[in-house]
Design goal:
Length: about 140
């Protein structure tokens, strides 16, 4: 699959995940972080198993897990825990039609960070798209 196909699959799966998070928190059996904890167990187990069986940890030493790429991986995990935890808590408190578009602004945040720290290109077309995205989220979430 191409990177665009993977991105589309991820978008569809994340959209479905937010629906399930909302349904789970609405049911009221578990608090928001309990729902996230159960979901994280599934994510963690399947991701580690997938990485293991596909050679992601093959021939790695303990020292490899202290290298910069590993440290960035741990930092990404912490940021993701805060991000998804905030999404689930927000969904437990408010309507998905407001929470999800605001949360989705992480796309612009990632774009800005890519430009600022990774030296990625930035054009007038991109800035126009970003402004339109902000306007769209404002109109949808209002």
């Amino acid at each position: 699959m191409t990177y665009v196909a993977w991105a589309l699959l991820g978008m569809a799966a994340y959209s479905t995940a937010t629906l399930f998070f909302k349904l789970a928190t609405r049911a009221g059996t578990f608090p928001a972080l309990g729902v996230l904890g159960m979901a994280a167990m599934v994510v963690g187990t399947t991701t580690v198993a997938n990485a293991f069986f596909n050679g992601g940890f093959a021939e790695k030493s303990l020292a490899d897990f202290t290298k910069p790429s590993a440290l960035f991986s741990y930092a990404a995990g912490l940021a993701l825990a805060v991000a998804v935890g905030s999404l689930v808590k927000g969904l437990s408190l408010g309507p998905a039609s407001v929470v999800v578009p605001i949360y989705g602004m992480f796309i612009l945040g990632g774009t800005i960070l890519g430009i600022a720290f990774l030296g990625e290109s930035f054009s007038l077309r991109q800035s126009t798209g970003m402004l339109l995205a902000v306007a769209g989220v404002y109109l949808v979430a209002r």
